[in-house]
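Listing 4. Sequential folding, example run.
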Amino acid sequence: MSKSRRAVLATIAATLLLSQITSKAPAAEQPKEIRIGFQKAGIFPAAKQRQTLEKVFKARGIDVRWVEFQFGPPILEAINTGNVDFGYAGDAPPIFAQAARANLVYIAAIPSRGYNQGIVVPENSPIKTLKDLKGKKVGFGKGSSAHNTIVAALEKAGLTYADITPVYLNPADATAAFASGNIDAWSIWDPYLALAEGKQARVVAFSKDVQDSISFFLANKDFTGKHGDLVALFNRTFADEGKWAEANRAEVATRLQEATGVDKAATTRAVERSNYTVVPINDRIIATQQETADRFFKLGLIPKPVQVKDIVWTWNPGS
């Protein structure tokens, strides 16, 4: 037998062996439950209250467990460590997480109308414009979307990050600090923003005045690799919830109030100015998020540059 023929036969044998091994490889075992990290912001509390996901995943024999957090960064840390499978956060948390090599991916997005986040001051504050923030103590969650809002606001006003004294606070602590006058201004999102407005706080700027705001659905990278069908089902379910929410805002407000205990007037205000339309992550969204990432690196807020596109999971809503 010629050497060339022996080589061909050896290649065929190796291919057949690999095929047999591959065919015997077990498919990823379906999880018994999915775990969702959520906060009081956005549509998640209403979906939890309506038990929409429970109904959808029960048909697959999968339970749903909800885990509550105060804001985005801890949710993403839980996704990174595998303690939750899915979560929802604003624009900044996934950038900080990616810079820290977190094990997560973007799976879908909700572009904001730009009124659900802003910078507020007490009604009688001498701060009238963004330029007046110079030399002031500004509270916000480190690594949160509110962090991005204040950075973008300073940039627009011709100020630098060094022109303010940042006070890193979670929403609960920031609420107390703002009420007691321990911070001069507060960068925050709904429903805390709406609550502050209800107590006569004055909005110096909404996020729409300084940036394009986008919130994201995120998932554990390993989970997504094993269970892409469940990730797609999760997205489709929330896309349907978004359509329901757009058409039933009064009921959304009621559901959110029941789920969170937040004042009904503040909840209604937040819902009325929200967008609930869930979309795949497209090139424009990636570009906007990349601008934010580049801004944070330029300021030294993250240790290295990141490429947002590297951790985007492609979702086809028709699949």
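-- end of first protein; second protein begins --
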Amino acid sequence: MTVPTRSVMLAQRPSKALIIALVISSLLALGVLVVLLVAGGPAGFGLSAVLAVAPLPVLLAAVLSLDRLEPEPKLHLAFAFAWGAGVAVVIAIALTVAGQALFARAGYGTQTVDAMGAVFLAPVIEEALKGAALVLLLRRRREIDGLTDGIVYASMAGLGFAAVENVGYYLTAFGEEGVGAALQLFVIRGLIDPLGHPIYTSLIGVGVAYALTRRNAARYAAIPLGYLGAVFLHGLWNGAAVTGSLAWLGGAYLVIMVALVALIGITARERRHLVARMGAYLPGYERTGLVTDADIRMLTSIPARRTARRQARAAGLGRAMSDYQQAATELVMLHLRAEREHLPPDRFAAERDPLLNAMAVARRW
């Protein structure tokens, strides 16, 4: 039998539908940016783009750090980001403009229409569209193994949406009042509240992931509940911004930070649970020679895993160590999924054996 040189989860061929969706979303995002460039001119667009992109490396690193034990496929992460930046932005603009036009025809004044668009239309429309990325990933249900995965995918969609949206906001401020206004807005959107969109949509991610990873009768109710939570947080922040009251903004910000702490708590709890289960399952594989006591101690500690990768890189085995750690983690998550979904023994073995083969190929120490 041919032994794979890379772990199965890394060698899976990408879905054609996923690639097509990624390309379409990316083109739509590019189209929006081109329109903004033409409308705002190179100077304003350049400044706005720099301000919108500046926080992204830190924000992306923060989101991806939540999923260090079992990193999600890069293509899926890119799809979620591009969906938020492209499809979600374009359709949100169209639907919000259409909704505001209906309010205007009903006789409401411009100020009222703008306020209703920000407080009601935008949260309802934008959260539905960003959350749609999670719903589309339901077909790839094996990639969502826990609530953390839902948070990561939702955050990527939120970051993509926010990046393109911020270009438009900064460009508008620049056009109306100049560089100073754009920089002031950046302080609010890019420094004080850069995680707004990811936090809102993460509630939908938690709902979708809960529905996929639980087996109780009411599990699918978590999806609309997560959506309502996302709409509430989004509307709360937008409503506070419309009032212009620092007290309202401070209160809304506090509520959003509580949600952020709760999301971090969810990921920390899941990580502790996964590490504990590794200590329970991996000793059963010691007889294969693929896992030793030292390996288990390394695999069940985030700092120890990081140290092992660093030492392996120094010895020219960095890729092998990363593959070994990921395959071992996937093996434990397979056990958890088998318990949850009651996988038949033959199917469990069919998914387990390639992971053991990947560990065998990677383990060179």
